[in-house]
Amino acid sequence: MAVPVRKALVADLERILLALAFWLGLAAGPLQAADDWIERLGLLQDPAANFTPDSVRAGPFQSYDHQLALGFSRAAHWVRVELRPSAVPLLLSIEIPNLDHVRLLRRDKAGVWHTTESGDTVPYAERPWRSPFLAFRIEPEQTGQPLYLRILTTGTTGINIAARPIEQGLLSEHRHMILDAAIFGLVLMAIALCLLLYAVSRQRIFLGFCLTQMLWLAEAVTFNGYTSVLLPGTPTDRIYSVLGSASFLVDMFFHIALVRRFRPAAWAFWTATGVAVLGLFAVPILFFQDVMLAMQFRTILSAIFVVLMAVMAWTAKAPSVVSVGMLRTVYSALVLSICIWLLPMLGWTAPLSISFQAIMLQGTVNLALIMAMLAYQTLRERRLAEVASERMRDAETERRVQSQSLEAQRNLTWMLSHEVGTSLAIIRLALTRETISDRNARRIDKAINGLDRVIRHCLDTDRIQAGQLAISPRKLDLTEVVLGLREQFHGQRRIADDGLQEPIFLTTDPDLIRVTLTHILENAIKYSPEDTPIQLQIAPLADRAGVRITVRNERLAGPAPDAGRVFDKFYRDPHVLATSGSGLGLFIVRQVAKALGGSARFQIEDDFAILTLDLPDLTGTPSDLAVPRLQRVSG
After folding, report:
1. 3-state secondary structure of 131
2. Residue 60: which residues within 8 A CB-CB, separation 6 or more?
3. Ranges for the Histidine kinase domain (predicted)?
């Protein structure tokens, strides 16, 4: 089962990575669109956040190319935007949407500055552009002169500024909305799947995952500006800070609890736990000290924590809710997604285009994790079901074997009590007479023969099953054997052999053939009406060297015997229990036939019982070949 499970998990991983690659292709679009109307961008840092627009005009702006990493800074950042002239209104969009405060300043021909404000600290109802995304409408007459953006933010991954005609700008926003809706829908699906997994497995780790995803979803909705639409009269900067910290803490403790199941390196586990405990201090800092300090503290701990998570994943020793290989893959992708977000925020690297959607990438990786959990759990449940089914089959087989064993023991007890008891009663009755008549002597002889037959049958059965019966193939004349048996049973029944006279030679074990044919004829005579002949025919096998011996007898009145059980050890048809018999004759016939490389079959046709014995020619088989141990039959 291990190979199919591994193949299924690999297939699921391929699907997840393909979906992730597709999403990356959508999100990692060009930094500057082909229809962008921005001609030049300049950046000026205002450390004390006290520059005036007039002082900024003459400031030393440094040119940069669209993307901007601010990191954690209390400074104001001024961006000078120079647009190409346009005959249509433009949409000046600013990514990412969770900037605290953005102010657009423009100077008219009279030298008067006009200011428009937006950002998380500005309620949605007061923003100039009614959209989840931060943007300003630029009229055609405003495109021929520099525009200034004053940006204040607690901390951000990066900022991307673009200017497009209104129609193209709206199209870009709609594309982002569709992409966000798809990601949010997938996360909601992951939450639903987690609840389903919890309902099936009752493992609390799935409830923990649901909580982390709910908080992540709330954080992502706020990060992308949708909360401002839902709460049009409320600034959303504080909401994002609280949700971000809550998501950060719950996420850390969830991942620790999850990876612990895989038995990672102890030092990595306890170090990660210590980092998570330190993360608790971000809460009082957030509420009572400084939001920027709390976010910076959280970001540094996140950078350390994700590295420890990767170490824990790569030192994991045992699978749990996913395979170890899948755990390593998902956590490696998770570390990459968080680094794309963290490093620019810390100011260590320049932002990439994907950095502006890093939080969505993290959600996609989390979705990959739950899909891997679902796939692994499904395969695990399927395997457990297969094991349970196999155990049930084994238990049923054991029960059937025990039932057959008990039945065989009952049949043996009944047979011994009947055969031995009857024979002993006859002998005891005869011995009570002063003189033994010829009739009683014959009865005693018959009883003794019956006892001898039972003992002989039991000994033959034991020797066959113990593998102590040796095969000594020799060439013999079957015609001679049949004529001898016909003479042996002459006083009991007529055996019709179709005038068998010509020699029929076969290389096999003479003693075993005589024993087998004796049992067959005894069975046919015992279970057929008196004065009816027993028909015996010998014909060559069609597919190989050997013979087919067919014994046909008219059966007794009443229900037909169970053809599927007549070869079972100690089996006696319930309707003929009054007839003397050990229940071993046909069992010995089939076992000997198998030992000789042949087969025995029993069937009912109309009012006749037919036993067919196929025997191969053993020419070339070594003499005194031990019979291999046959299948053990309970009882």
Report:
1. coil
2. 44
3. 415-619
Tokens 């099953």 sit at which residue?
A: 465
Nearest to 142 by CA among 116, 168, 179, 123: 116
Instruction: Tokens for 287, please give them.
Output: 């509420």
- Nearest in space to 60 (alpha carbons), one of 75, 73, 45: 45
Chain-centre distance for alpha carbon 463: 49
Question: For residue 585, which phi and psi values (nearest 5 degrees)?
Answer: -60, -55
Alpha carbon separation from 513 to 468, 535, 598, 619 (Å, rounded) = 17, 18, 12, 15
Q: In the prediction, which pLDDT does 577 show? A: 56
Burial class (CB in 10 A: 0-12, 13-18, 19+), 169: buried
User: DSSP class of residue 561?
Assistant: P
Q: Express each pLDDT in 245-290 by its tens digit.
A: 888 888 888 888 888 888 888 898 899 899 888 888 877 776 666 7
Q: What is the mean pLDDT of the chain?
A: 77
Cα dist. 104→62, 83, 150, 275, 283 in Å? Answer: 19, 14, 7, 41, 33
Question: What does the pLDDT average to over 184-191?
Answer: 83
Q: How many CA atoms lie within 13 A of 31 on its CB side?
A: 14
- Cβ pair 431, 423 in contact under 8 A: no
- C-alpha 372/C-alpha 305 separation (Å) is 22
Inter-axis angle of helices 358-431 and 166-201, nearest 10: 20
Over its C-alpha atoms, the chain yields an Rg (Å, rounded) of 47
- Taking the CA atoms of residue 10, residue 15, residue 20 and residue 25 in that order, the dihedral angle to the nearest 10 degrees is 130
Question: Which secondary-structure segment (H or E) carries 249?
Answer: helix 237-260
**Which string of b and e fits 556-567 if b means at least 16 CB within 10 Å?**
beeeebeeeebb
DSSP code of residue 183 = H
* Crossing angle for the helix pair 585-595 and 510-526, to the nearest 10 degrees: 150
Q: Which residues pair with 495 in a beta bridge?
A: 534
DSSP state for residue 356 in the 8-state scheme: G
Helix (H) / strand (E) element for 167: namely helix 166-201
b/e for 91-110, b at 16 or more Cβ within 10 A? bbbbbbbbbbbbbbbbbeee
Q: What is the 3-state secondary structure (H, E, C) of 261-328?
A: CCCCCHHHHHHHHHHHHHHCCHHHHHHHHCHHHHHHHHHHHHHHHHHHHHHHHHCCCCCCCCCHHHHH
With 70 as the cut, is the pLDDT of residue 538 above it?
yes
563 CB-near residues (< 8 Å, 6+ apart): 602, 603, 604
Which pLDDT score, from 0 to 100, does residue 472 have?
A: 81
Are 630 and 594 in contact by the 8 Å Cβ rule? The answer is yes
